[in-house]
Design goal:
Layout: E1 12-14, E2 23-25, E3 35-38, H1 51-56, E4 61-65, H2 72-77, E5 82-86, H3 89-100, E6 110-114, H4 119-132, E7 137-140, E8 144-147, E9 150-153, H5 161-173, E10 178-182, H6 185-189, E11 198-203, H7 211-214, H8 217-229, E12 232-241, H9 245-256, E13 260-265, E14 273-280, E15 285-293, E16 296-304, H10 309-324, H11 329-337, E17 347-349, E18 356-360, H12 365-381, H13 393-397, E19 409-413, H14 422-434, E20 437-440, H15 450-458, E21 466-468, H16 472-482, E22 488-492, E23 499-502, E24 505-508, H17 511-520, H18 532-537, E25 539-541
Parallel strand pairs: 2-3, 3-4, 4-5, 6-10, 6-11, 7-10, 11-12, 12-13, 13-14, 18-22, 19-20, 19-22, 20-21
Antiparallel strand pairs: 1-5, 7-8, 8-9, 14-15, 15-16, 17-18, 17-25, 23-24
Helix pairs in contact: 3-5, 4-10, 4-11, 8-9, 12-14, 14-15, 16-17
Length: about 550
């Protein structure tokens, strides 16, 4: 592709625009001979400071922000370089990346999902439905990237615009019929998904998170809203949770734009898709839906292996998206019933122990509260066969509160370092209020002292039903040691992550692995409580 093919009228250009470019780069360390280099400003570094390095590595064209830095000396050193001045390098990077990849989102439908919680599970639900419909699907998400049955690590929920467009292009070239992408607020603020034509979008909810980056909830909402107000293609559908106040705000904004909106709700019977008669157990959730299909009200029962009210919301959002693409209801139901494991989302670790052990990604105050409320509901309405009603000698020896014949919730959690400090005390209050016992520990301390983070958490605690164990490994093991028959052990915060970040380094650490090892170290369990697969992995995800 030639330089002139990626130019816009508002770009100022100096040099031979007929020069060929072989790639697009924004990190000077990754520049290859023949690349076009875009000098974006990152969270830690400004690529304008590395333009010289990019040229040395073989960049034939450089995109820079007008007035950002005096580049006259560099421009005079090499007359063969094409210099392109722009107002916004991030906008230019997204535009150029889309053009370089031949605008792939115009050739394959892209479904975008945003919100504080529920993005990953919703993406897996939509993927399962589409695959049950016989379609080939690509997925860009928090846990990994998938191109049909090929799986790749995901360094970012939504990658930088170059990688984002290249992923969509690769999915298109590999025969994908649909692309499903989680779209983070960071990505929307930094224009990583700009110049993508989204064929459908989902708004799950908005609760406090990432305020270290966005500063205010208004800014956070504005970032999320861009997916609907700026990036959604004309005539495409926006599926919105109107039980969330920010969802209602978004609907009002889109109605003024006469956008195509499908609403879902558990509380408002006039929503387009609603759920009622909800029944949940430790193994599945079932409910009845009411929805409008071609101006006809349809009711049916949905059964899913996903547990809890929060997953009813996720299922409704997936139904809205599937309905917008005219997927038959029979296929939708089958896809929901067949949804695969979602790692770190109410992930059960089970090798036959007489208590429930769960790993979950809940790392915000709302997510933690919903997790605990969901767990409390399960505990009070469900019976684990042979578990409730037993009193072990261990329970009488511990300092946990006695719940009689009912099980207890034991929660292990912490908060990440160098992130929004305002949520720490709130999470402390929620964990100790809704758990029977909490163990406050370290999460990803990053560059902070874990003890300082824990002190912030303690500021919100009003009960004395907790202890502090900074070592997360020991904290998880202690929770298992304290658990009695019928209890539920929750390990919250890290979910699918397989590392712990300390002082700029990532060390291997998996909550699921630690939990499994801790349970395995208990008294030998009866072999008839689990099948061969469970014995081998010890992990059941639902």
């Amino acid at each position: 592709m030639k330089v002139k093919e990626v130019l816009r009228k508002d770009f100022s250009v100096k040099g031979d625009i007929d020069r060929d470019i072989s790639g697009v780069a924004y990190d000077s360390r990754n520049v290859k001979n023949g690349d076009l280099f875009v000098a974006i400003k990152g969270e830690k570094f400004d690529a304008h400071d590395f333009i010289g390095d990019a040229v040395k590595r073989g960049a034939v064209a450089v995109v820079y922000e007008d007035g950002k830095k005096d580049l006259s000396e560099l421009m005079n050193m090499d007359s063969n370089i094409v210099w392109i001045g722009v107002k916004d390098c991030r906008d230019a990077l997204a535009a150029i990346s889309s053009i370089f990849c031949e605008k792939p989102s115009e050739k394959v439908p892209v479904i975008g999902i945003t919100g504080t919680n529920g993005k990953t599970t919703t993406s897996y639900l939509i993927k399962s439905i589409m695959e049950r419909w016989g379609k080939k699907v690509g997925l860009i998400g928090t846990i990994n990237y998938m191109i049909k049955d090929m799986v790749y690590d995901a360094p970012h929920t939504t990658p930088e615009s170059v990688e984002f467009q290249f992923l969509i292009r690769r999915m298109l070239d590999n025969g994908c019929d649909y692309v499903i992408s989680e779209v983070s607020s960071h990505a929307l603020s930094q224009k990583r998904a700009d110049y993508t034509k989204f064929a459908a979008s989902v708004f799950t909810n908005l609760t406090r998170d990432h305020l270290d980056f966005h500063k205010t909830m208004e800014d956070y909402f504005s970032a999320k809203a861009r997916l609907f107000t700026e990036l959604l293609s004309e005539g495409s559908v926006a599926a919105i949770n109107i039980d969330d106040p920010y969802g209602e705000m978004l609907v009002n904004i889109l109605e003024k734009k006469k956008a195509n909106v499908l609403t879902y709700s558990l509380k408002k019977p006039d929503a387009d898709v609603t759920a009622f008669d909800i029944k949940t157990t430790f193994k599945e959730t079932s409910f009845r839906i009411k929805m409008n299909i071609n101006n006809e009200i349809v009711e049916d029962r949905i059964i899913s292996p996903l547990v809890g009210i929060i997953n009813v919301y996720n299922i409704l959002s997936a139904i809205c998206v599937a309905q917008s693409f005219s997927v038959p209801l029979k296929i939708i139901k089958e896809g929901i019933f067949k949804v695969g494991a979602v790692k770190g989302r109410f992930e059960r670790v089970d090798i036959g122990q007489d208590f429930l052990a769960v790993v979950d990604y809940a790392h915000t105050e709302d997510a933690l509260e919903q997790l605990l409320l969901n767990t409390r509901q399960l505990l009070e309405t469900c019976t684990l066969a042979g578990m409730h009603g037993k009193k072990s000698a261990k329970s009488e020896q511990t300092f946990l509160p006695d719940r009689g014949e009912r099980g207890r919730i034991i929660t292990v959690f912490g908060c990440g370092g160098n992130r929004d400090r305002g949520k720490r005390a709130k999470m402390g209050e929620i964990a100790t209020r809704l758990s029977d016992f909490a163990i406050i520990t370290s999460d990803n301390p990053r560059y902070e002292d874990p003890r300082d983070i824990i002190s912030d958490i303690e500021m919100g605690v009003n009960n004395d039903n907790y202890i502090i164990v900074p070592d997360r490994n020991i904290a998880i093991s202690m929770a298992v040691e304290l658990a009695s028959s019928g209890d539920i052990v929750l390990i919250a915060g890290k979910g699918h992550e397989d590392y712990q970040e300390i002082q700029g380094k990532r060390y291997h650490f998996s909550d699921s692995e630690i939990l499994l090892n801790a349970i395995s170290g208990m008294t030998t369990l009866s072999s008839n409580k689990t099948d061969e697969t469970d014995k081998k992995t010890g992990v059941i995800r639902c």
